[in-house]
Amino acid sequence: MIPLYHDFSDQTVLVFGGGRIGARKARRFASEATVVVVSPDFGEYDFGGAELVRARPGPDDVATWVDRVGPALVVAATDSDDVNDAIAAAGRERGLLVNHADSSVGGDTDESDAPGAGGVGDVVVPATVDDGDVRVAISTGGRSPALAKHLRERLEAELDGADGMAALTAELRAELKASDLDPSARRDAIRAVVREPSVWKALRTGESNPRREATRVIRNTTGGDQWTRE
User: 28, 90, 158, 181: which has the fewest C-beta neighbours closer than 10 Å?
Assistant: First the structure.
């Protein structure tokens, strides 16, 4: 499988299943999409503000629900293999994205998606680490949710300050582009900022000014003659 990011703004995600896994899937997508969750019962879980519809569709009923909601993605997260398979089939037949959750791996894990997925439109929802707009996705192809969770936990500390670094370097790139520096020198300067521990420390602790630290790095990298902004 090839990882891609998908923009779910102004789109709908249809989740079948009101248990722990269904709730986690709903929370994941509710920050961006309109989410509808269909289930006969809903546990005491956080569904992220999704619309909860109480119903018990059988294998022969799910296609009607998919057509009624018109989602971009369907999630099969019920406790019935027959219903889940029918949900996945209905989504694939309509050319939709399909996430076939697998309750056998446990509802507390990240990336709890069916191993062996490979039908048209199948997607695995990866474990993610984010700091603002900076996001890293981790997937084992559904084979080892435990490993995905472990890697996510290890990366959380590493990503601290990344959103601030993205904002700072975006600002610096724009200023350098307006300078007399050639493109190669500009790229070297930004790379030096991104790799500089003192800039990361300033972003994470606030003990010094990140902009001042970055300016120092750029001057050292470029010689300081063609770029002198504070």
Answer: 158
Give backbone dihedrals phi and psi of 222, rounded to 5 degrees, phi first: -100, -10
Which pLDDT belongs to residue 150?
92
User: 80: buried, middle or exposed (CB in 10 Å: 19+, 13-18, 0-12)?
Assistant: middle
Q: How far apart are CA 43 and CA 45, in angstroms?
A: 5
Would you say 87 and 93 are in contact if contact means Cβ atoms under 8 Å apart? no
Is the separation of the CB atoms in 31 and 92 below 8 Å?
no
Please state the φ and ψ torsions of residue 163, each to the nearest 5 degrees.
-65, -40
51-54/73-76 β-pairing: unpaired
The ranges of the chain with pLDDT < 50 are 103-109, 112-118, 120, 230
Give the pLDDT score at 108: 39
Helix (H, G, I), strand (E, B) or coil at 113: strand
Q: What is the pLDDT of residue 97?
A: 95
Q: What pLDDT is recorded for position 226? A: 55
Q: Given this model, what pLDDT does residue 145 score?
A: 82
Write the DSSP symbol of residue 115.
T
**Which has the closest alpha carbon to 59: 89, 38, 86?**
86
Strand partners, 130: 135
Q: Would you say how long the chain is, in residues?
A: 230
**Residue 114: what pLDDT?**
45
